[in-house]
Amino acid sequence: MSGGVGPTAGGGIALPSMGQPPPPLHPTPTSPTARPHHHYYLFSIKQLNALGAAAVLAFSTTVPLSEIAFAVLLIPYLVLLATLAFPQRSGKPNPAAPVFQGPARLLLAAHTVVGFLVGAAFPALYILDGLRSGDTAGVSAAAPHAFLLAAQVFTEGLTAAWPWRFSLPVRVAVPVMYSARRMFAAGEWLRQEMDEKRGVLDVAPRRLVAGRVLAVANLAFWGANLFAFLVPFYLPRALQRYYCGNGADGSDRTTRTRGSIDDDGVDKKDS
Prior knowledge:
single chain; mainly alpha; disordered N terminus; 68% helix; elongated
């Protein structure tokens, strides 16, 4: 009645020994190039919200086609970078490891919070208030900037979901390229807010002030983010980690080099 399954059935399927546990079906990855079986963080709540916001803005006809094309074409370009220029091979540092340590990491977290408020939260409230009050010109001016930021969050989530595919320089390239593109969107936003026709329209004075303040704040913040943080500090540190090893500042490789020189010197003296 057992169907031939059991240790006493001749020629049946033998059960594994009780002394040795059965091997795991899917081994745990031990390196950034190992592929996990499950992608629990592939589409997180943050990514889905960003994708939904980008899709709503894209289909609202307030975002130029050039911005939509930039966000769509950037993904295959990142795949080419990860394949040809910066492949993630065994021995390369884990791209999920933090680039900055200690107090610098806390400053980076505070910088991220300020960027969320200035670039996402306040512009979203401005757009929603414009939809309620009928200020279509203000919504059209702020929508491209909000779309690019939402697309950046979604793209960063994609590169983080495949650490064995996208190396650290490729992941850092996402905020660098989006910040550079968003500079033009913020500049166009400020130009439209400062247009004289904007004051002639039936727009509440508070929206005029809020739109101009938000446009200036985003232009200043993302400009400082690009030229004072990403280009001079974040991108070089990521490239140094990628080429020099796991050390965030290349100290591991320097130590190994000096140690090998000292050993060679000792060997020469002994010989």
